[in-house]
Specification:
26% of the residues are buried. The protein starts with a strand and ends with a strand. The protein is 31% helix and 34% strand. It contains 4 helices and 7 strands, in the order E-H-H-E-E-E-H-E-H-E-E. The chain is of the alpha+beta class. It has a single domain (2-140), classed as Gcn5-related N-acetyltransferase (GNAT) (Aminopeptidase), CATH 3.40.630.30.
């Protein structure tokens, strides 16, 4: 697996990963369309710290963050459980002493992953922009 900084041209593949996740997640309300996600990513990747993981020449996942706040805003893997998320988290941990993120409250699988990576829940019942409650999780070295 190869990790590199995300560029605007990675937006279509990353948007497709998120759109598939939204479609496959029964508790997730309809979100932005794949085209809207792509536009957001195309604009955001050059302005934010964002990383992609490539496997066999294809994008396997991405991580995007507000670096000035050490806050991860998106982490999605095309095939969860294959090391993509861990590789991306390890990459951003390497340059920091702390990280934080919000996660959808119903997303128990993500919470288990983050806890394995050393994150701890620090806040619950936060309002989510998409109407789904969130929790905050933090990691420190």
């Amino acid at each position: 697996m190869k990790l590199r900084r995300a560029i605007a041209g990675d937006a279509p593949a990353c948007a497709a990963i998120v759109a598939r996740w939204i479609d496959a997640t029964d508790w997730m309300p309809d979100g932005p369309s794949e085209a809207e996600l792509e536009a957001l990513m195309r604009d955001g990747f050059p302005r934010r710290e964002a990383w992609v993981a490539e496997s066999d020449g294809a994008i396997a996942g991405y991580l995007s963050m507000r670096a000035e706040e050490d806050h991860i805003v998106g982490l999605y893997a095309d095939r969860p459980g294959h090391g993509t998320g861990r590789a991306l988290i390890d990459r951003v941990k390497a340059d920091r002493d702390r990280l934080q993120l919000n996660s959808h409250a119903p997303n128990a699988a993500a919470h288990r992953f983050y806890e394995r990576e050393g994150f701890r829940i620090t806040a619950t019942d936060l309002p989510g922009e998409d109407g789904v409650p969130e929790i905050r999780m933090e990691w420190s070295r």
